[in-house]
Amino acid sequence: MSDAHAGAEYARAIEQRESDRRARRAFQSLALSQVPPGGTIFDFGAGAGTDARLFALRGHCVRVYDNDSLMRGYLAETCRDLIDAGRIVPETGEYAEFLARRADPGAPEANLVVANFAPLDLIDDLPALCEKLHALTVPGGRLLASVLSPYFIGDLRFGWRWRGMVGQWRTGKLVVPGARGNIIRRYLRVFAAECAPWFRLERVFRGLPPRGPAEAVGIDFTLRPRSAWLHLTCCRFMFLLFRRVAP
Fold first, then answer.
1. Number of domains within the chain
2. Could you read off the pLDDT of 90-122 as tens digits, one per residue?
């Protein structure tokens, strides 16, 4: 199977559900609202490059990384025009290399880090990743992540959801085996704790287009840390907005 074919298969699969297409549009809109005109975005888990391409065409410099070599190859082909123009700048290497690599002093720091369609759910050591992303981000920068909601009541029809419930109550994590490793759905309080001291969780959004002004601004997690989850029971994804904390 060629790199391009594998990437194309993934790109088609991730766009099959209407709910996923709506979630992507909502995430893209929220991300664009969090970055200044002409600002730099770091796309972690960039996949096929769908988001990166949109952000670059909107005038942003987009640095991209994905640990899957097939995805990196497909992105390099489909975004070649923007890479050649310097609008998209790919990072290479395996994940361990990415974490260990020293920041390029000539590379622009990101105003916003994005992670769409749950790449953070595949990360076991989240603090190590947050430390790395902190080093790539400007003071006061943001991290916007789309993750699978552990509160989604639609998953109660699946056996794996019930089997993982005891562990979820005990640890705040629902761990489910997946094709690329464990998928870890974390409670909001666990995300907040594991991303500190590098990023502070500030706002939480439903992973769908907002139905009105109130949903557009999300839930202030700093004011409602115990009840924010109640708004996330009817959507597969939740969007988490963090602010970079000064070292």
1. 1
2. 999 999 999 999 888 888 999 999 999 999 999
